[in-house]
Design brief:
single chain; binds acetyl coenzyme *A; Citrate_synth-like_lrg_a-sub
């Protein structure tokens, strides 16, 4: 077999692959995707099986440690996470310094970055015990940070975590409960949220995960690497798409222009608009997660007795696009984010929280990928080449 790295060195070839369309940055045992057939597997298990049978934390264990946990391993893991859900009281005050209308993704990445200042032992990325405790702290504290970001935007008091509840139930309570009255978790919402989080847990070398691995390759600690991943997720072409989908659906509703006209404007590339929630770098047939999310959207809205015009617009958009040559030729299908926003809205989350929910979902994948990279002795600092196309050497002008 040919060792490409040696070949590149010997011949001096550099491959230009903008957007890394063909270049693998790593080997990985975590997630398998076949984009043509719409297959996604976590550690060999199909996403359909995982979504129907597992929980967020059990799936996190699977991704991070490679196997399904035994009942006692899972119990111990959940207990450890429950013990770390609180934020340091000083970190709580950190939120006071940020404007109330800050985007919660900015709040999230800043607060996660700040975790390194409280847990300075985490800087030793070669100490397995530190990696382990940083893993638990991140999984436990990210939902608390996210709920605080939400409460701050509403001007409401923060609620301490309630460790008598499950991971997802506690998260719902911290977001929607208040100090004045008891909070009752709606099981339909808890089940739907659990499923959505599972569907987002890992997706191999997407932009945010590649960012986490790249930053981690410099031996930056887990908090710093995940904070960078959150910022990569923020963009509307990645995690920010779920927010952008809802904004788009609302604009279509308010403008009254109708779906057909809007799709025509997308096809004309008017102002560079895209059909948000459509298309994927890897899936060129269908996104298996999108099917499961669509199922949940109908279940949640039916169970809550909500009739949402935005869901009708989304379904009409999907039908029109799937029958249109522009989308067929370019292999553009609904992705996981097309229907997630409709569900989050029905749950009561403001649009700006949608990408934060994606970040909580993706966290176990980021951790698993960072740990895989960190424990591989062959990992090198990520340092892409470039092709310089600027001016050749120039003499400094004598007169200016
Ligand atoms: N709407 C309209 N046209 C599109 C769309 C879209 N959503 N996506 C791609 N196209 C078109 C492009 O204009 C291009 O057309 P052209 O050949 O006439 O120039 C062609 O399809 C190929 O597009 P690329 O941008 O080269 O595809 P790429 O694989 O780089 O992009 C991406 C993938 C970023 C997801 C893109 O499809 C997109 O912008 N989608 C909308 C945003 C979105 O939903 N992102 C979420 C992704 S999933 C996730 O992060 C969980």
């Amino acid at each position: 077999s040919i060792d490409i790295s040696t070949l590149t060195k010997q011949t001096g070839y550099t491959t230009l692959d903008q957007g890394f369309v063909n270049t693998a940055s790593t080997k990985s045992e975590i997630t398998y995707i076949d984009g043509d057939q719409g297959i996604l597997r976590y550690r060999g298990y199909s996403i359909e099986d995982v979504a129907k049978n597992s929980t967020y934390l059990e799936t996190a264990w699977l991704l991070i440690y490679g196997e399904l946990p035994s009942a006692s391993e899972l119990e111990e893991f959940e207990e450890k996470i429950r013990r770390h859900t609180l934020l340091h009281e000083d970190l709580k005050r950190f939120f006071d310094a940020l404007p109330h209308n800050a985007h919660p993704m900015s709040v999230l990445s800043s607060a996660v970055s700040a975790l390194s200042t409280y847990y300075q032992d985490s800087l030793d990325v070669h100490d397995p015990e530190q990696v382990e405790i940083s893993t638990i702290r991140l999984l436990a504290k990210l939902p608390t940070i996210a709920a605080y970001a939400h409460k701050k935007s509403l001007g409401q008091a923060f609620l301490y975590p309630d460790n008598s509840l499950s991971f997802v139930e506690n998260f719902l309570k911290m977001n929607f409960g208040n100090m004045a009255e008891p909070y009752e978790v709606n099981p339909v919402l808890a089940t739907a949220l659990e499923r959505l989080l599972i569907l987002h847990e890992d997706h191999e070398q997407n932009a945010s995960t590649s960012t986490v691995r790249l930053v981690g390759s410099t031996e930056a600690n887990l908090f710093a690497s995940v904070s960078a991943g959150i910022n990569a997720l923020y963009g509307p072409l990645h995690g920010g798409a779920n927010e952008a989908v809802l904004t788009m659906l609302e604009q279509i509703k308010e403008s009254g222009e109708g779906v057909e006209k809007f799709v025509q404007r997308v096809k004309n590339k008017e102002d560079g608009i895209r059909l948000m929630g459509f298309g994927h770098r890897v899936y060129k047939n269908f996104d298996p997660r999108a099917r499961l999310v669509k199922e949940s959207a109908h279940e949640v809205l039916a169970a809550l007795g909500i009739k949402d015009e935005l869901l009708d617009i989304a379904m009409e958009l999907e039908a029109v696009a799937l029958a249109d040559d522009y989308f067929i030729e370019r292999k553009l299908y609904p992705n996981v984010d097309f229907y997630t926003g409709v569900i989050y809205k029905a749950m009561g989350f403001p649009t700006r929280m949608f990408t934060v929910l994606f970040a909580i979902g993706r966290l176990p994948g980021w951790i698993a990928q960072w740990r895989e990279s960190n424990s591989d002795p062959k990992t090198k600092i990520g340092r892409p080449q470039q092709l310089y196309i600027g001016e050749p050497q120039r003499d400094w002008p004598t007169e200016r």
